[in-house]
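Many introductory courses stop at the sequence. We go one step further.
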Amino acid sequence: MDAYKVIEIDESTWAIDEGMVKSYLLAGKERAMLIDSGNGAGDLRHLVSSLTDRPVMLVNTHADGDHTGCNDQFDTPYLHPSEFAYYEERNPGKAHLALPDSAKVYLGDRWVEVLLIPGHTCGSIALLDEERRDLFFGEMI
């Protein structure tokens, strides 16, 4: 866990800083969402488990290696379908699930909406918790 610095945003939202890359953990009453899995510098699964006991849904904002490095420590990642070809090129044979534009994910007491923001990669997404006025993204906007 020394590879990471945890920054509490509020009682159920954390930034996990790995130097040049950040992941975000959003905990709801029923499940949690991990946004990106970083470079793969450490045991991210153990760190996430120390912050929440909820089942964790991994969402990759895009398929660059500095955002998918610890994917193997979690269940099958979700990506926007526009990112599938790039993910498959970089991760041959690795399973992934679709999370389309405008999809809303319910964590138990908070909703997170998927926003397609192509540019950095064709399937880059941001995740919006509108009620809390929080927007999470993988690269600079």
